[in-house]
Amino acid sequence: MEEQLSIAQTSQKFNIAASTLRYYEKIGLMDPVEKNASGHRIYKEKDFRRINFIKTLREAGVTVEQIKTYVDLFHEGEHTIPQRKQLLIEQLHLLQKQADNLLHVIDDLKDIIQNYEDTLVKREMDQRRKNRT
Amino acid sequence: MEEQLSIAQTSQKFNIAASTLRYYEKIGLMDPVEKNASGHRIYKEKDFRRINFIKTLREAGVTVEQIKTYVDLFHEGEHTIPQRKQLLIEQLHLLQKQADNLLHVIDDLKDIIQNYEDTLVKREMDQRRKNRT
DNA sequence: TTAGTACTTAAAGTTAACTTTAAGTCAACC
DNA sequence: GGTTGACTTAAAGTTAACTTTAAGTACTAA
To answer: Which pLDDT tens digits describe chain A residue by residue (133 residues)?
Structure first.
């Protein structure tokens, strides 16, 4: 049988607050989630896939609005495939820039840390010299 | 002579709004900037270096608050070097995680784009076959 | 001397992305 | 039949990081 989870369980599974899941649905990032007889949400495989998609992009810094644009195109059907592809390519370029910058900053930070390290080592050597005299 | 720029010029040089420069100063990311006789800010080399530091980290997603913590330690003097080093190392780990995730997302996006590409190519081939009959 | 431009400050406003609150429904257990 | 717990919605609140506004000062050119 297909896995079916409550909002609390889904929240746990993806480590996303239940309120956030409702929020994503409200603003149209998630399609309306199926409800049981008492009106509680039942999340299924297709929802999980969507949540993963959203989470991944969000963690990479893609805005909710941009994801919404994509999802909207998705709903418009197959004829939007070229636009969707274009949109993803643009997003890809942005992320590549971001990754590039990040790697530079990481290098810079390593340098600064190394400088501190050098300072500390030099200090300790001075200390030892003092102790010897 | 040392380069001296007005807030407007500095804003241009770094592509950061003048209001943002004032804001950074107000919250203590920047040290109080020197002023001329009529109370206008004069930015100099040491300010440029600080602005660069802030800009680089901000672009990598480091929060203003975290940068503030670092700057505060800096002001406390040399004895905070071990703490500063520790702080930067932690930040470095975070950024490395972020870069890692970003590279994964980039790969995922490339896959999705390739799928769209395949779909489009397949469509065109179907179209040609139709035209031939 | 007046107009314009470039600044100044303090305070209020904005935006994105949630998060919290308030009030209510429903099924299960005591 | 009352209480508990897991949900529901709509609306209000929060936070970070700016950005805008309002009111004022100072130099410069006409």
So the answer is: 789 999 999 999 999 999 999 999 999 999 999 999 999 999 999 999 999 999 999 999 999 999 999 999 999 999 999 999 999 999 999 999 999 999 999 999 999 999 999 999 998 898 888 787 6
* Structural domains in chain B (count): 1
Q: What are phi and psi of B5, to 5 degrees?
A: -125, 150
Q: What CATH number corresponds to the domain at position A38? A: 1.10.1660.10
Q: What average pLDDT does this structure show over B118-133?
A: 84
Nearest by CB to B88, from A59, A95, A113: name it: A113
Question: What residues make up the domain containing A36?
Answer: 7-76
Contact A61 B60 (CB under 8 A): no
CA distance B62 to chain A (A): 11
Asked whether residue A60 is domain-assigned, the answer is yes
Buried b (16+ CB within 10 A) or exposed e, A15-44: ebeeeebeebbeeebbeebeeeeeeebebe
Residue B51 has pLDDT above 90, yes or no: yes
Q: Do A102 and B99 touch (CB under 8 A)?
A: yes
Instruction: For residue A10, give both structure tokens.
Output: 């889904």
